[in-house]
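Quick one, T. Sequence first:
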Amino acid sequence: MQEDDLFGPPEAAMPANPGSQPLAERLRPKALGDVAGQAHLLGPEGSLTGMLARGSLASIILWGPPGVGKTTIARLLADAAGLQFRQISAVFSGVADLKKVFEDATRLHRAGRATLLFVDEIHRFNRAQQDAFLPVVEAGTITLIGATTENPSFALNGALLSRAQVFVLRRLDDAAMEELLSRAEAEMSQPLPLTPGARASLRAMADGDGRALLNMAEQLFALPPGTSLDETALGQLLSRRAALYDRDREEHYNLISALHKSMRGSDADAALYWLARMFAGGEDPRYIARRVTRFAAEDIGLADPQALVQALSAWEAYERLGSPEGEVCIAQAVVYLATAPKSNAVYKAIGAANRAAKETGSLMPPMNILNAPTKLMKNLGYGEGYQYDHDTEEGFSGDNYFPEGMGRPDFYRPVERGFEREIVKRLAYWQKLREERQ
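Structure tokens:
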């Protein structure tokens, strides 16, 4: 890879006419305070502002969605700290490129000049490539700024994370998007040809991505004079930015967690919203149906015995109908589960029973509840003293079914909600009979 490709075009190669640059590039902030939507990092009390004020710019990881200013912030930090800026992309670079960068940075370091290396999409480097940064970061040869759209906890080496601070960049909110549109209109010396409703729709179409917003705005500025678009016309002209969703990455787990917790919180509307978000992102409805079924047993259990039936029926109905018709069946199950009484008593009970099973090893069942299919086993006492529950007046013998010497644990503790309220009464009744017969 040539140096021009690695570090970006030299000054002589930059467009002579700034007006020929894309709008997003022309509006790239010239100062950290001009970066929209990241006041928690760059405002007067921001974390990065404080780091610069102390004169101690450390290696950092900028984690956030696309189009929120990661590259811009890295460039401006280099300027503010007086560091030589170098940039590579993990998508196009390999070990040889890293070695070249490190050699150049080492020469500059010996000459008394410090280097800030910005690595875009750093999560795309494999573990060995990430390890290559460790010695030059530790030696102070470079100040590393890595940009990633993936959760650093999963995408980056622990050794690299321990040498860098992670800063989270936020998705641009509506106010930040409007600020970008106002800057674009000032730059172009004309208003966008949109009705107020269409302007709001444009911001929504960009889905928090400032670069996408400015790219769409640039198309609108190129329309013939006198054009005015409403929401419908805007939708026909521009495509909505695809929602951020990757079925094997963090957003996948974030949204299923939001769905699960909304149902647990008995908020049917929120649960439907997150369900719709997953459908819109292309999630496999079978995965959702499986997780909904798990929820029925884990968070509702016997508080409503029909919950599991509803979840399984929805799953089966989806298999028969497919998409999109079958998605309504999953939605029905989600609403049912969200509005059902909640209990995790069975979930907690099996967890406690699992722990007890591991702790007690291979204890035998008591002899009275063992079958005696052979004469030898009968002579050894298998089944001796067993009471057939149906022969008792209450249909309950009160026998001990735990191993001898184990004692009687209390795994299942139903709650006073839904059907489990009835189970509480039954257990209390049986315990009373048990105590009377001891």
